[in-house]
Each structure stands twice: as structure tokens, then as C-alpha cells.
Amino acid sequence: MYGRIISITELRRNFGELTDDFAISSPLILTKGGAPFAILSSAPEEKRKILKKSAGSWATTSLDDGNLWKSSLKKKSRAKAIKL
Known about the structure:
It is a single chain. The chain is of the alpha+beta class. The chain is built from 4 helices and 3 strands; from the N terminus they run βααββαα. The relative contact order is 0.13.
């Protein structure tokens, strides 16, 4: 589930590089003194922005079907579809 385990020092030194594609990557486990102490992940709003951008890429293709989106956005544990 979690992608990388990094130290706080590495996060400080490479913050820009680590956060460039942060919204599409797995959360990071931060270590302090060699022991894990925090999980860093992107905000759900950032992931939604990416989903909205990619949602239009199917337009005018054979995958452009409202029923497909309806079934893909409905979680089994939810009664209603997720609103984007």
C-alpha cells in the first residue's frame, strides 16, 4: 500500500522532487531516527483535480458511456456514487 520509506532529512533535501507527482503516487512513510513515525499523503482535493482532468480524455471514444462512469464511481460500501 505504501510506496517509499524515507527519512526526514531526505524529505528536507529533496522536497520538490518528492512532491512533483505526489498526488498520483503512494503515501510516504517518514522515519525519525530509523523508526517510522508519520505517513505523508496528498490531500483528496488534489487527487480529484487529476481525476477531473483525465475524465475528459475518454470523450468521443468508445469508452464515452455514462453507465460506465456511474458503475466505476459507485463504491460497494456506498449507496450513492461519489460526486466529482
